[in-house]
């Protein structure tokens, strides 16, 4: 059998091949098109032999493959003319090279019929639509649950807090939120994210106190498949990658182990992470919001928290006010809690005026969280539609007027010192941190005021 017969057999084989086939020569002209491709394009194959490929397929990539000599497998191609205009298909383009020279490009559409093409195109579109839908839903679930409107209260303290939130939200620096347990530090973090330019991206919360020490690195930075015993074969994305482009909220940052503090500091400085078991650095664009109810300044002095990380986190600081600092907002907070309980249980209940008076005289050491707990108990334990003083727990009903100072075993001197610090903090706030006005109001000298201020941590001021 001679070469001509061999070529004739190959040509006939391609001709009856059920999948569309195209052969383009080194001069970018069409050498061969089988019947299946002709039917797909709606043209007679013999009429295009010898034509430049652009005359038949104006956006063909075969000339590029001739130049690069690099095959393109499973490439998505969208036609721009003729019967198949705007249709998208999957195609292989394979260069035929000899002695470093391109001889031709072999093109193969990955469909046995036009019906298969359309079915796959419709299925592909459906998958894309579903992916877009679930991506949107996923971002919604991971985005901030609360906004500035979620922070209830119209007193001076809360209005000042909201103004601070708006200010820090407009910049990209790290924020440290401090305050007692139960004051709503997470609510503030959500509000900062919601007010920022990142509000449409992920808000990822990490409770540093709830992660076992041996899992810190994998939770923060992720891992590659099979990097340790029990690891997923496909690997796992860490919180930094998940929050990329958005906000990472590090709650209870004071509980972060010292060995992780150095790793966190490096990420904040370099803005990149490496998964466990991997060697590829991954750039991350994440805004950090951290929160704690501990005195990080004292932890630094005691060697329990890195000083360099403390200053890196404490670029912007927001102190979440305790409930006893804005008791005038209790009625609004209570009404919101009762509304939620009504929606959940279907029964509306109200508080008597006497109960409101009692609640506003209590010191609320557990802050808003305690208030929520108390109101919920009153709602469920009272029989009628009105909650009266008799339903209020005795320790609240008979509590004395709020006092900023708690009894301590350290003695009178320590209590007096705490009272001095509290009065200075409150007076500074009322006078916009003006030293002269504060000293005059307290009727003390400026040097004495400075001595008291030296005993106060930066988070409290």
TrEMBL record:
Keywords: ATP-binding, DNA-binding, Nucleotide-binding, Transcription, Transcription regulation. CDD domains: AAA (cd00009), PAS (cd00130). Residues 151-380 form the Sigma-54 factor interaction domain. Residues 6-57 form the PAS domain. InterPro entries: AAA+_ATPase (IPR003593), AAA_lid_NorR (IPR058031), Homeodomain-like_sf (IPR009057), HTH_Fis (IPR002197), P-loop_NTPase (IPR027417), PAS (IPR000014), PAS-like_dom_sf (IPR035965), PAS_fold (IPR013767). GO terms for molecular function: ATP binding; sequence-specific DNA binding. It holds the Pfam family Sigma54_activat. GO terms for biological process: regulation of DNA-templated transcription. This is Transcriptional regulator with PAS, ATPase and Fis domain. It comes from Frisingicoccus caecimuris.
């Amino acid at each position: 059998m001679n070469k001509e017969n061999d070529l004739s057999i190959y040509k006939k084989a391609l001709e009856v091949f059920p999948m569309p086939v195209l052969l383009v020569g080194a001069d970018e002209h069409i050498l061969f098109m089988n019947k299946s491709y002709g039917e797909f394009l709606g043209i007679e194959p013999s009429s295009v032999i010898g034509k430049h490929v652009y005359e038949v397929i104006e956006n063909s990539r075969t000339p590029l493959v001739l130049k690069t000599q690099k095959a393109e497998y499973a490439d998505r191609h969208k036609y721009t003319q003729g019967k198949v205009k705007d249709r998208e298909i999957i195609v292989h383009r394979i260069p035929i090279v000899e002695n470093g020279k391109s001889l031709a490009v072999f093109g193969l559409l990955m469909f046995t019929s036009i019906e298969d093409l359309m079915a796959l195109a419709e299925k592909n579109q459906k998958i894309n639509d579903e992916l877009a839908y679930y991506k949107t839903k996923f971002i919604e679930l991971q985005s901030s649950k609360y906004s500035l409107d979620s922070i209830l209260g119209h007193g001076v303290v809360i209005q000042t807090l909201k103004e601070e939130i708006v200010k820090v939200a407009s910049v990209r620096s790290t924020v440290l939120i401090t305050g007692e347990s139960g004051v709503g530090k997470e609510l503030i973090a959500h509000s900062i994210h919601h007010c920022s330019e990142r509000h449409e991206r992920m808000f990822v919360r990490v409770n540093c106190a709830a992660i076992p020490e041996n899992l810190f690195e994998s939770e923060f930075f992720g891992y590659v498949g099979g990097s340790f015993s029990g690891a997923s074969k496909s690997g796992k994305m860490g919180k930094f990658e998940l929050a990329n482009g958005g906000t990472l909220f590090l709650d209870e940052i004071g509980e972060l182990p010292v060995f992780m503090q150095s790793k966190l500091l490096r990420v904040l400085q370099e803005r990149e992470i490496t998964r466990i078991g991997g060697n590829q650095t991954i750039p991350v664009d994440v805004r950090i919001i951290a929160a704690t109810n501990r005195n990080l300044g004292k932890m630094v002095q005691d060697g329990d928290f890195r000083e360099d990380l403390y200053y890196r986190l404490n670029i912007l600081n927001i102190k979440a006010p305790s409930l006893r600092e804005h008791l005038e907002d209790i009625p609004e907070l209570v009404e919101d809690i009762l509304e939620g309980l009504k929606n959940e249980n279907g029964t509306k209940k109200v508080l008597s005026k006497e109960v409101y008076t009692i609640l506003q005289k209590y010191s609320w050491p557990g802050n808003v969280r305690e208030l929520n707990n108390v109101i919920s108990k009153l709602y469920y334990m009272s029989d009628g539609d009105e909650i009266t003083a008799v339903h209020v727990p005795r320790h609240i009903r008979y509590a004395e007027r709020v006092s900023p100072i708690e009894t301590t075993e350290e003695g009178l001197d320590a209590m007096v010192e705490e009272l001095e610090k509290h009065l200075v903090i409150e007076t500074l706030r009322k006078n916009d941190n003006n030293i002269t006005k504060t000293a005059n109001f307290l009727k003390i000298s400026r040097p004495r005021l400075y001595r008291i201020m030296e005993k106060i941590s930066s988070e409290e001021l």
